[in-house]
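User: Quick sanity check before I run a bigger batch. Here is a single chain. Can you write out its predicted 3D structure?
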Amino acid sequence: MGIVELVIVVVVIGGIVIAFFGWDRYRGGRSNPVGGSGVQPTDEVFTDPNTGQLTRVWYDAKTGQREYRPE
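Assistant: Done. Predicted structure follows.
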């Protein structure tokens, strides 16, 4: 096996690994939609009684805190 074939094999295997596990794992997990803060939206949505606006609960697993953001 020549050097060209070896390089092709390494690139193909690397591409398969990245495609399977996701590129974000190799970038340090920056796939968080809120910019890496660890806050994730939950399924909890309710209507604010004061404004009548829909509000979603967001949860930060690192701190255990809940945030309420308008939809």
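The two ends are 58 Å apart (CA to CA).

User: Great, the batch can go ahead then.
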